[in-house]
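Hi support team,

I'm filing this because I wasn't sure whether my run with flavin-adenine dinucleotide finished correctly. The job status page said complete, but I'd like someone to confirm that the output block is well-formed before I use it downstream. Pasting the exact inputs I used:
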Amino acid sequence: MTSISGKTDIDWTAFARSLAPVEVISEPVLVKKRSRDFFWYSPILNEQLRRCFGDLVAVPRKQEEMAHCLGRAYAAGVPVTLRGGGTGNYGQSVPLEGGLIIETTAMNRVLEIGEGFVRAEAGALLADVNAALAEAGQELAMFPSTQEIATIGGFVAGGSAGIGSLATGRLREPGNLRALKVLSVEADPQVHVFEGEEVLNVHHAWGLNGVITEVTMRTVPMRDWLGCMATFDSYADAYGAGHALATAEDIAPKLVSVVDARIAGYFPRLVDHIRPDRDLLVSYLPAEKLADYEALITDRGGHADLALTEDKRKAASIPHAFEFCYNHTTLQVLKSDRSATYQQIGVPDAADTAAIVRLRDALGEEVWTHHEFLRAGETVQAIDLPIIWYKGPERLQQINEIYAEHGFAVYDAHCSRVEGGGMHADYRHLAWKKRLDPKGLLNPGKSLAWPEVCHLSADEIAARQG
Ligand SMILES: Cc1cc2nc3c(=O)[nH]c(=O)nc-3n(C[C@H](O)[C@H](O)[C@H](O)COP(=O)(O)OP(=O)(O)OC[C@H]3O[C@@H](n4cnc5c(N)ncnc54)[C@H](O)[C@@H]3O)c2cc1C
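And here is everything the job wrote out:
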């Protein structure tokens, strides 16, 4: 069997045989399909990554099979890229140097549900975890809008926040991730358990520094949520109402998103359900708070168009409200027009609507804003995931500079390195990479800092964190 990636010099037939009894996929079309994620959101990454493929896919069903794959990869010096649902946006699970893709979706059992937590295998679909929790009267404290295809391990390794983060913060907030069970890539892979603050050694490391086999995550009591849509005559009004709702402790919504009217024009499933050509406020709030919510919307000059229980939503054939927030908003536009792209922006002061208006004026017609509110400790913050009508890398850079001039941080969505997006190198991650992946086989090429420090000891690398 020849190398599909064209980047490895390995006898893939013999290697595939050595993985038995683990299921493998070697059909080039299928291997290529599993080498992709949602990097195509970015025309820059699409150009860089669309010809990057793995060579073989393994689909272990339990931890012992995963350990077997990792031990074989270590012995043969094979690069290994973990893959859950493949919904990452930056080529997180694209094998840059070819090699073995390990898909986790057959390791999908929900192992334990307790008071305030769930423990599941890394490949469990988030929607399945939420369904199991619902039977116990609980729900995940947060989940990404991709819950139907994304795995709990992929969310922890690649994601950061989601539906619920307005109530309970990002994944990294203390208490949200309780424990992670992680395998090393060695001749005889070892199990390491990270608990409490220690989970940050592995969280959002893109599968660079260990293979997550089990996740224990925070759950909250299930509530009767209403998926709500309200419309406004101006973005400023919609944003101001969004901030007021996000900070209304008596209503306690778990999601508040504000979407530019022009983006909402790309939501065909909402036609006849919301007023057209208006800026949109999407939220989830407890059913018993409907009257308070409607009063807030009216006070702010808006119109409460939709407030749906799950049963009513299904009966009306309307998608979940969360399919119009986070990166699903971008997806709705891209379904119609691939010349759009997006960016990730930090808002310096979530309460400052005037600053948002000034920035929108400066950005002009080619950037359409979309804000998400989320909690960080006691405060409510905002991020912007705007639609940008792409006119080339130079113009994108100019747009980034406009954000920076206005004091808004750009977390660049057009970079396939873990330190991209304005993030500093996380030397805790890299120190653990040295300990758990001494040959540097996991997701190679995804860390800018790793080549500079890989010759140091784990303690020397950790010391760089300061
Ligand atoms: C439409 C859309 C909406 C999105 N909405 C959100 C959102 O609301 N919030 C959010 O945070 N993100 C969001 N994302 C990004 C992405 O969906 C999430 O990060 C998601 O949870 C990833 O899960 P996955 O199973 O698809 O992971 P994958 O894409 O398969 O993998 C993500 C990363 O984790 C690594 N990985 C996977 N499994 C393991 C494992 N067991 N051990 C170690 N490393 C592993 C992979 O190598 C890769 O680097 C969105 C993306 C899209 C396309």
